[in-house]
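Me: Here is a favour to ask of a fellow structure person. Could you put it straight underneath, so I can go through it closely?

Assistant:
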Amino acid sequence: MLLKMVFNGNQGCQTRIFSFLNILSFGLFEAMSAIEMMDPKMDAGMIGNQVNRKVLNFEQAIKDGTIKVKDLSLPELIGIMDTCFCCLITWLEGHSLAQTVFTCLYIHNPDFIEDPAMKAFALGILKICDIAREKVNKAAVFEEEDFQSMTYGFKMANSVTDLRVTGKIQIHCLFTGRIYGFGATKKRKCVNYFSKLIANESKTVFLFSVRCCLYNNHQAKDYIDSFVTHCVRPFCSLIQIHGHNRARQRDKLGHILEEFATLQDEAEKVDAALHSMLLKQEPQRQHLACLGTWVLYHNLRIMIQYLLSGFELELYSMHEYYYIYWYLSEFLYAWLMSTLSRADSSQMAEERIMEEQQKGRSNKKTKKKKKARPLSREITMSQAYQNMCAGMYKTMIAFDMDGKVRKPKFELDSEQVRYEHRFAPFNSVITPPPVHYLQFKEMSDLNKYTPPPQSSDLYMAASKHFQQAKMILENISNPDHEVNRILKVAKPNIVVMKLLAGGHKKDSKVPPEFDFSPHRYFPVVKLV
């Protein structure tokens, strides 16, 4: 940004924005560091009057005798290596190579080093940097301030193979273990691995059963292959998104819904084609929109994650809670449970058909074993989440009735503007159709009930929802940490809702407190 200085007589010197400059060599990283320029304590490139030493490059330092390239002692080697490791970690944390790893002159050109241990170490560091840079660039889950991949023209030991470097370094496992044990890099490697896994292995997901009449149908296989090919990009992107921090995850989840909307449309077309083909050959077996259900499931999971992450990032004001929880409980989780139940029933029906076919071929009597429903746990958890959201929605409506919710004085916007902003990414989704503000107000209008519920009724209804969530979760065998965390919220909220339903602090207008420490999406309600 270029600032123009204007001098206006008695008004003195004024500064105003004149224009914007976009220079390719001056990016976000440089802009963030600009405040440090010309400060001797902070600007690494500044040489003040108090510094009289001549700055030498590696070759000049060797000729001048200020740096040793052979016969380094153990303390010297340990000191150099330890400092290089520190610089390496600093680079992985987001700083540039020029200001971290390449501050060590030995790394500039290992060919000049005569000490075998130091030379092997320098080559190893360069290879590690090159490998990490390549992996992170391929995974593409970083922003400019997260990771600096520029090499500034330095050589990365490309002329030496990895195998040769490994042979030179007897302690290879020591520092490669440290690098790949580093959290961010390991996460990026996993993202890259799973991206490849999706691309290579996803073609096996939808292959027909050997017993299906379409197993050898080339047209059906072409439909499936074409669909799976279109799945690779959005699903790779979805996996890559989870390599970003929470704020960027939420932003990118909103954008990827457009790709999944297109994929949903294609899935429905393939389902229709397969259904018609299957009916001609096996009328008793139906395709049942398997692909569309699968894409719809992921669509719903993305939408739910998008909304819930807003609580984790503390984006919502208290007066917005009620329509966020309403959208989750009455709409998204209802759709999700319907989708899961349909997929579960379809899978069970397919298994029954296969069992009947096996019985017809075999005369042996087999004992019937009661099979667990494949998606029962996820359906159960979705029911618990839905009840928690419904409980919070009714709690917020009751608080609003009692005047315990502080609302802003809308001047430049309104509740409708905020509502539409919160759910704007859903407008690109066809299934499920987005609920617009006027629809929401109509669907959530309490005056349609006779008589309209009072705040005490809503508190009691919220208590029942929390109680239902508690019962569902307590019946889960082998509960995990998530189940226990939700229970820590549901139990105290049951007590608080019953107190409020009985008239406790009804006349108080002090807003309640919401403690999100037990669970990131559902708060413990505390009365003040």
User: Anything to note?
Assistant: The radius of gyration is 31 Å. The longest strand covers residues 13-19. The CA atoms of residues 404 and 509 lie 5 Å apart.
